[in-house]
Amino acid sequence: MITLLGIEKVVPRLEDLALLLPMLATVGAGQLLSGYNTLYGGPRQPDEADGPEEFHVVLLDNRRTALLAQTEQRDALHCIRCGACLNVCPVYRHVGGHTYATTYPGPIGGVITPPLRGWQDWIHLSYCSSLCGACTDACPVKIDLAHHLLRNRHTAARLKPSWWQKIAFRLFAPIANSRALWMLVTRGGRLGQTFHGLIRGTRLDPAYCWTRTRDLPPIAKHSFKEWWRKQRK
Ligand code: SF4
Question: Which of 22, 100, 122, 125 could, after both became Cys, cross-link 110 (CB 3.0–4.6 A)?
């Protein structure tokens, strides 16, 4: 038998399971104990009827010790993967847990995926939060997730932007600063969405990674100002 686990899954004593197992089931699924738990005590002993002949435990680091060295962020490794932060998150409740194709979904995924899998490629997850703090309130092991997400954003601000980010922000700044340009782009976006259905979910679709599994929310038909003007007429 081979067991594969991250180093943060090790608990000091067997007795600690008496706290952690019910905690995981209660907070994650509202049960007193989850439907399945398996305890292995190592390889089969000569006087035992069954059990594995060999027992191997592989402890994966995968940058966890680097995270452990970050004194302000290491408590993210306390996570027991109950999913409570995901269930209460106003963002993930709408987009679903596996929207961003990460092993760890939800707010804790936004916290630990960038340091574990690379800041450049995964930092966008830390922006997938309203920072309302519901995740922090729900976490049974008291990880201050909202604070960690904010800290990740500070780290992101010090990273060198990629070429497409540079172009995107260069374009976005004048558009966001000019009402006329903003209206023009919004109208263009509405028009683009009319034709988007023709390529939606195909490789030609620039939003493919989103639209292959879900709909792209439509841009509002009117801006608030347009709506207001219409009402006053
Ligand atoms: S961060 Fe907290 S609430 Fe979220 S999965 Fe981990 S233990 Fe559960």
Answer: 125
Q: Which residues line ligand 1 (CB under 6 A)?
A: 79-85, 108, 138-141, 143, 145
Distances (CA, A) of 40 to 2, 13, 15, 54: 11, 14, 15, 11
User: How do residues 60-118 score in pLDDT, each as one tens digit?
Assistant: 999 999 999 999 999 999 999 999 999 999 999 888 877 777 888 899 999 999 999 99
* N- to C-terminal Cα separation, the chain: 75
Strand intervals (E) in the chain: 2-6, 56-60
**CB-neighbour burial class of residue 116 (10 A; exposed 0-12, middle 13-18, buried 19+):** buried
Give the closest residue (by CA) to ligand 1 atom 4. 85
Q: 3-state DSSP call for residue 141? A: coil
Q: What's this model's pTM, rounded to 2 decimal places?
A: 0.76
Q: Which of 147, 127, 128, 123 is nearest to 137 (CA)?
A: 147
Q: Based on DSSP, count helices (H) and strands (E) in the chain, helices before strands.
A: 12, 2
Distance separating alpha carbons of residues 170 and 176, to the nearest angstrom: 11
Q: Which atom of ligand 1 is nearest to the CA of 78?
A: 7
Q: How far apart are CA 147 and CA 125, in angstroms?
A: 14
**Which residues partner with 6 through β-bridges?**
60
